[in-house]
Amino acid sequence: MSRPRHFLTLEALGAEGIERVLARAVELSRLRGSADHPKPLAGKSVALVMEKASTRTRVSFEVGIVELGGHPLALAGRDLQIGRGEPIEDTARVLSRYVHAIVHRTFAHATLERLAAFAAVPVVNALSDSHHPCQLLADLAIVRREHGSLGGGLRVAWIGDGNNVARSLAIGCGKVGMRMAMGTPEGYRFEDEFLDDLRRIVPELDLAVAADPAQAVRGAVAVYTDVWTSMGQEAESEQRRRDFAEYQVNAKLMSRAPKDAIFMHCLPAHRGEEVTDEVIDGPQSVVVRQAGNRMHVQKGILAWMLAAQA
Ligand code: CP
Ligand code: NVA
Prior knowledge:
CATH topology of the largest domain: Rossmann fold
Bound molecules: phosphoric acid mono(formamide)ester, norvaline
C-alpha cells in the first residue's frame, strides 16, 4: 500500500505499527484528564460515518476525538445522502474538503475500500462485514495487560461464527505471534478467499479449526466469542440459532479452559445465546475492560494516523 497511514488495516499497520499504537494508547490512558494530555487533533474535525448501529465505537471515538482536541461529527448513514443513493466515491471526495479524517462503519468491505480510495484524508475502519480492526487492537492490549505479554505462542480460542471480529483476530494474532484455535461449525468457518489472504498477510499464523468447542478452548489464555447473528444477517437468525446451539460459552465450556483463561466478547452480547450470564458476569470476564479500552486505542490510532499528515 503506497499510503500506509491513509487507510487503517491491521495488514498495513504491521507488528511494529501495532506496538506503536498500543504504546500510545497506554500513554494517553495515563495522561487522561491531566494538563499534559496532548491535543494532536487541535483544529481538526473527524467525520464518523455510521451506516450500522453502534454504541461503543461511536461514543468512544466521539469522546476520544474531543480529548485529543478535535471536533467529531457523528453522522448516521441514513441522514446523509448516501442513504438516498449518493455514490460513496462522491461522499469521500466531498467530506475530504471539510474534515481531516473519516471513521466509517458500513456493510460490504468494498464500500469502505472505495471510500478510502477516493478520500484525500485518513480513513479508519469502524467495522465492516469483513473486519473490525479497532476492536482487535483494543483486545490485544487487554490480553497483554492480563498476561504480561503478547506472542510467545499464547493461544486464543474463538468460539462461534467466523465473522468480522474473528477475521481481525486472526490477522492480529498472526501479526503479534499468537496462535488461534477456532471452535466453529462447518459452513461458518473462514472462506477459502480469506484463508488465501491470511496465508499472504500472516503466513506465520498458527490457526487450528475444530468442530468441537471444547477442543478449541484447551490450553487457551482467552476464550472469545461474539453474536451468532451479526448486523445485516438478521434474516438468518433462526437458522443460525439452530446451527450454533452447541457453541454457547457457558460454565461447562469454560471449565475445559485453563482456570486463569479470560473470557472476551466485543459486545453487544445476546445473553442466553452465545454466552450465559454466569460467564459474561463472572470473574474471568473482561468484556467491560475491552469496551473501555476501545477509546484509548482509538485515540492512539488517530494520533498516529493524523501525525503522519502533519
Ligand atoms: N464492539 C463494538 O464495536 O460495539 P458497537 O457496535 O456498540 O460499536
Ligand atoms: N459481529 C458483530 C460485531 C458487532 C460489534 C456485528 O458485526 O454485528
